[in-house]
Design a protein that fits this description.
CATH class of the largest domain in chain A: Mainly Alpha
Oligomer: homodimer
Shape of chain A: globular
Distance between the termini of chain A: 33 Å
Largest interface: A-B, 46 and 45 residues
Order of helices and strands of chain A: EHEHHEEHHHHHH
Number of domains of chain A: 2
Number of helices of chain A: 9
CATH topology of the largest domain in chain A: Glutathione S-transferase Yfyf (Class Pi), Chain A, domain 2
């Protein structure tokens, strides 16, 4: 039985591939693993049967035989540890790749997620514009550090890994903001991620879900 | 050779054990592993030789033979995978514990870190009080979900694991805010973490560093 993941019935990102099921889809595509998708509505995400799988009422979840997982970072790591193509073989290389996975989620993504707070959750507040400038500065300081480290390499540490999958996914949130444009190597890095066949298949799959929901009206 | 970690020469938390070297110290103490500490000043953290170890100019780092790691979550996972006492033996139990590690860092901690933004980074802004209320509401909604899931269990999923180590560390940031007081089971959970001998040894070690720096003046 292939694993089953959950995804938004109608993603709030409008099909741009920013919802976190995309990271799991991409990992499964890189690993060449088939999967099933169960779509959940916003109200179903808060219902007891989903909360039993995901204590915080979010997507994605991952069900495989009698294992139930949540947290996209953990699911990507689980897939990467069990299939070839997403983590290096040597123990030290592997530990460093996992460190970069945590860096993507715990150091680079948090200021980027603040854009959602500023623009959407608090988009009607009088402090919106002044805070937006502060948050953008915090993002730029992270991007600068990441840009220096990446330098002219294709990927973060040797061959493409689950760390790049997560880092590219995190940086893709900045696409519409223009903030990536000042960091030519980071923009090219993101484009390399998007050009991977596995990314394209995952992106198409999540877009098809969004388009199907939209056509229903 | 025992591993060497880096820590603040003078922690901005005043020795309360909230800096991220504490999580690594605690993990090493749970695993019964000796370690060395190299203290770094704020200016040394941004210097090229430290940035070579930690691309974002932060602490902690972890050096063991020819392996260099950064990101406290990754370091704790590395220690937990190599020594007994921090992860269950069975593969599925282990995967779920790792999922809870990601949940602590990626779902529970982000709104809690916003308290630092509100109170310190933007503590002089006119929106401080109104935003503080919004951030506290976001924290409470996460705490409520976590409290429901924990219920009357001692730990998140079976025996104490690296997931509890990280979750307790994250919740400890709330101690001075009073926000934990409404969730009796979470407050007791944090107290159980603090009562562990390994936690106490790690706490004493980081406090000794802070006190030594303070006595120098």
């Amino acid at each position: 039985m292939p694993p089953t993941i959950t995804a938004f019935e109608r993603s709030p990102d409008g099909g741009r591939g920013l919802a976190r099921d995309m990271r799991v889809r991409w990992a499964l595509e890189e690993a060449g693993q088939p999967y099933e998708v169960r779509l959940v509505s916003f109200s179903a995400m808060k219902a007891p049967d989903h909360v039993a799988l995901q204590p915080f009422g979010q997507i994605p979840t991952y069900e495989e035989d009698d294992l139930v997982l949540f947290e996209s970072g953990a699911i990507v790591l689980h897939i990467a540890e069990r299939h070839a193509g997403l983590l290096p073989d040597h123990a030290n290389d592997r530990a460093r790749a996992i460190a970069w996975m945590f860096a993507a989620l715990d150091t680079v993504e948090p200021p980027i997620l603040e854009l959602i707070t500023v623009k959407i959750l608090e988009g009607d507040k009088p402090w919106r514009n002044e805070r937006l400038a502060l948050v953008e500065d915090r993002i730029r300081s992270r991007l600068k550090q990441l840009s220096v480290r990446l330098d002219d390499a294709d990927w973060l540490d040797g061959a493409f890994s689950a760390a790049d999958l997560l880092m590219v996914s995190v940086l893709l949130r900045l696409k519409s903001s223009g903030l990536l444009d000042d960091y030519v190597n980071l923009a090219a890095y993101v484009a390399r991620g998007e050009a991977r066949p596995a990314y394209k298949r995952a992106f198409a799959a999540q877009l098809a879900v969004f388009n199907a929901a939209s056509s229903v009206g």
